[in-house]
Amino acid sequence: MSSREYSADELREVLSGMGVKDVVSAARYGSGHINDTFKVDCASGTSYILQRINTDIFDPDAVMSNIRRVTEHIRAKGGGTLEVVAYARPWRLYAFIKGAHTVDVITEAGSTSSPTSTTPSRASRSSTPRARRT
């Protein structure tokens, strides 16, 4: 995450440009060190993840092109994927996925450490990797 702070007005302006006008709150979210990420809650009950892609490290257009190609491929195979709601370089907006979590550190085979969880406890979860047959 960058050291740049964004005012509520700045975030509302970005979100308004993406068509989101009923913002109740927008707060930093997660433990990332590269991009600026915010959880956005709206009066309608809809929640989003707003993220500013770090342009010192990434080409946002190339990143979003890759995300679109991957999600289209997964959907074509019948899988569920994240929903890209809007993109306004360098900002992107995703539908918030309740119950999802990120994995920051793999502590041992089959176990992960996850300080960012969308569940109220924000507890770590573990999962068992499954072998894929070819």
Plain-language structure description:
- Helices cover 20% and strands 27% of the residues.
- The strands form two sheets. The protein has a five-stranded antiparallel beta sheet, sandwiched between helices.
- The protein has helices at residues 8-17, 60-76; strands at 23-28, 36-42, 47-52, 84-88, 91-95, 105-108, 111-113.
- A hairpin with a 4-residue loop joins strand 2 and strand 3 (47-52).
- The chain folds into two domains: 8-97, Phosphorylase Kinase, domain 1; 101-134, no CATH class.
- By secondary structure, the protein is of the alpha+beta class.
What's the structural blueprint in terms of helices and strands?
Blueprint: H1 8-17, E1 23-28, E2 36-42, E3 47-52, H2 60-76, E4 84-88, E5 91-95, E6 105-108, E7 111-113
Antiparallel strand pairs: 1-2, 2-3, 3-5, 4-5, 6-7
